[in-house]
Sequence to fold (253 residues):
Amino acid sequence: MRLKETILGYVWVVQEFTLLCARTVVNLFRPPYYVRETILQMDRIGVGSLFIVVLTGMFTGMVLALQGAVQLEPYGASIYVSRLISTSVVRELGPVLAALMIAGRVGTGIASELASMTVTEQIDAMRAEGIDPIHKLVTTRLIACLCMIPLLTIVTDGIAIFGGWLVAKLYLGIDSYFYWTWAFEALRRQDLVLGLIKPAVFGFFIAMVGCYAGFATKGGTVGVGVSTTQSMVSSSILILASDFFLTKLFMAL
Fold:
């Protein structure tokens, strides 16, 4: 009996999450358009997360340069470390690490904000005033995530490759022209396309999971902490799982 109730609970969560996603996507093409709220969310998500993604990209590129040089040195190919850095960052590490950092900062922030509004009955007050909370609160955050997270990923990729260049130039003694030439030579159009599609998908999950966790909050202030934790865990799992399936799909195509 308990197993059956657990399974039904998961089915209910998936159903409610799917319905929320469907309503939000429909609202993207239906007025009113809350432009000011959307711009505010873009500023919070984009500008507010810039520092953390810059640090993430910088140290990721530097570590890749160090480890890559060690692995390639037995084959006398350490001078080609820029190829390893650029392809690894653009295809996988840049989108995934940036999304995980943003999920920890933005996703939990969305969940806690909406959870606080839920437990203090502000959501019910919006409905009483004739305002659709999904349209105003969820759609605006989804648009902001879809616009800003790919841009933040581009910043992460660029900073990571730059961090790899610092290590290659100052520590490994690799010529700058050689480094940058091979870094861009290794990238293909498919890599760039995949590197931009992934962040958009990750941004969708970050926004929707955070909003769903906030709306589903129960239990007063204790529930706010629970919803915030669930948002972070669920977003991270979906990011990693969707990364695998997207990579597999592009390899098949």
The chain is about 85% helix and 0% strand. The mean pLDDT is 91.
